[in-house]
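@channel sequence for tomorrow's demo:
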Amino acid sequence: MTVDERIAAARLWAAHRAPYLASAVFALRPVYLEAATDPPVPDPEFRAFPTDTRWNLHVDPGTALATPVEEIGWWMLHHVGHLVRGHAARSPVRPGPGAEAHRWNQAADAEINDDLEAERLPGPAGVLSPSALGLPVNRTAEEYVPMLDVLADALGNGGRALSEAIDCGSAVDGMDRSYQDTGSGDGLTHLDRELLERSIAAGIQDRISARSEIPSGWRRWATERTRPAIDWRARLGAMIRRGLSTTAGQVDFSYARPSRRAGAYHGVIPPAMVRPAPDTVLVIDTSGSVTNDVLRLLLAEVTGIARPSGRLRAICCDVAAHPVQTVRRAADIELTGGGGTDMRAGLTAAAALRPRPDLIVVLTDGETPWPEHRPPAHTVVCLIGDGGHAPAWASVARIPEGARR
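C-alpha cells (generated this afternoon):
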C-alpha cells in the first residue's frame, strides 16, 4: 500500500469511527514531506503527523509507511480536535520551545483524548490519557495545565514522566515549525474554517437531538459554538442595572425627611423611609495590556448607565491603586498607570472608601490575581478579550477585545 493509499484508508477509518467529524477529517490537507533517506525510514519527529492552523497534515513518508492505518486515522481525529476547538488561539505559550509549550500540548491532548476514549478509541502507546493518570475527564486544556504541573512534579520525584514528548504542530499552539515551509502555504482560509466549524457544530446538535451518543467534550463545544451571540452592551447594562436596583431597593430610616405621620406620635418626630442613591466605584485596569481606546469606550458605556443613579468614583490600578477620582462623565477620568496588573489592590482600595460603595465595576482583561473573598459591595467585572478570567463571586460581562461603537 502506497503512502497516498494509506492516508486515504485512514480518512475512511476515522470518518467511520466518528461520523460527526467526517467533514473535518476530509478537510485535512496532506502535505508530503521529502524523505530524508531512500528507502524512507520513520522519523520520530513526525510520529504524530503534526498539523498546522491551515489544516495541513504533515506526512513523513517513512512514518506513514510504518504506521498502522488505524493509528494514522486516530491522529487525524486527534488533530481535528485541536483545530476545531481552537487550541492555537487559546494557547498561552510564548514563541520559542520550552517546558511551557510542552505542557500546553499535553493539556490540549488531555482535553481531546478523553473524548476519543469515550468512543472506545484509545490512543497509541505513549500518548497522554487523563483517565490513566487518575485525572478527572471532561475538562478543558486550561483546567488540565495546573493538574499536570502538580502530577509532573510528583512523578518526577520518582523518575517517571507523564507521557512521551509528542509535538502536534502549530495547530496546538499557533507557532510555526520549520517544516511548514514545504508546500504548507495553502490550506483552509478563515472563512473556510468558520463555515466548516458551523457545519460540524450543527451536525453534532442534530445528533444530540436524535439522542445519538456524542462525547461530553464535543457536546460542550457544539453547544457553545451554536449559542447565539449576546450583545455585550445589553449584557453589561443589565448587570449594572441589576446591581444598582438591588442597592436602590434597600430602604432605611432617615431624619433628613421627617415622617408625614409625625402628629400621630404625640409630639415625637419619627424618621421617614428613604431609598438611597447607589454609590458606584469604577476600578480600571491601566496596566497597559488594555488599550485606552477600549477603556474609553467602556467607560462611556458604564458611566452612562451608572452616573444618573448616584455618586461615581474611579480608581485606576496597575500593581497598585492610584488616587480616587470623583467624576461626572467618562471624559473626566484620567487614566494613570502602566505597570503590572493586580486587581486585588484596586478592589481593596475601593472597599476601603468612605462612604462605602454599593456597586463596584471592574474593567480589566482578567490577566490578574483576584481576592479570594467577595468584596462587601456587589461587583461586576467587564472582562475584555477572549483570555483572562474572573472570580466566581463576581457578575461577569465578556467584552470583545475589538469592541467599537
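heads up for whoever presents: The mean pLDDT is 83.
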